[in-house]
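Posting this for the archive.
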Amino acid sequence: MLQATPPVPSKLREMLKDYPEHIERLQEVLNRSVERSRQIPLMPFDDAIWALEGVLGAFIMEASDELEAAETSGNPKAIAEANEKKRLMSFARSKNIGMAEIDDLWEYFQVNFRGT
């Protein structure tokens, strides 16, 4: 079954369900990765993984900034929420947790980039 766009891995979708804008950003980076790979199909799956890891790393940095701002404010609820968000983003980036189940993305590249 040919898919027009690469899927954000289902495990990441599940983990980030409360952050739809993050899922959207992951989809955008995957779409750009596929466009690059269609022009120069060197290692399309690896390129997509590296792109995801880069954006997930940015999510961690953004969450760290939010935690720092919350700590500066002294608001315990904001600190707890920001700390939990940073923890979630770190888990999403982990090769053992969020990036561990990427079969749907692998399948996309097997079907759409066969022979490249």
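The longest helix spans residues 44-73. The helical segments are 10-15, 20-39, 44-73, 76-93, 103-112.
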